Amino acid sequence: MNVTPALLFVYGTLLSTDNYFGKYLNAHSRFLKRGKFPGRLYNIGNYPGAVYESDSSTYVQGAVYELVNPDEVFDQLDEYEGISRENPEPHEYRRDLITIETDAESLTCWVYLYNWPVNENAVIPSGDYLKIKGNNC
């Protein structure tokens, strides 16, 4: 398994270049490959939230990016995801390192995981946000 703290797995609105922060991510990273992790993807409203479940038989689908300047990029993306120091706790998301499965290997990547209760939110059965929102998120 490769461990590179400059890798980020995204599964929702950051996949879209119609989104300002999706454009920012694309300008400051390099797409590596598609991937997935065990868990569930929830419809939070205008965006998804993923919950990691190591023993799940369902997967969250997304993409792995290699960040050009991780500290700078995470400062911007943490603000977008509402987990900067200025945001009140408990944060809606948290950024964790987890194992992402790709077609050829497993990679340890940062991912923004949903941190609030999901009892009221519908599961996205495919685990693929692009399937319900199209390519434009």
TrEMBL record:
The keyword Transferase applies. Signal peptide: none annotated. Keywords: Transferase. Residues 8-130 form the Gamma-glutamylcyclotransferase AIG2-like domain. The keyword Transferase applies. GO terms for molecular function: transferase activity. SUPFAM superfamilies: Gamma-glutamyl cyclotransferase-like. It comes from the Bacteria. This is Gamma-glutamylcyclotransferase. It comes from Mucilaginibacter hurinus.
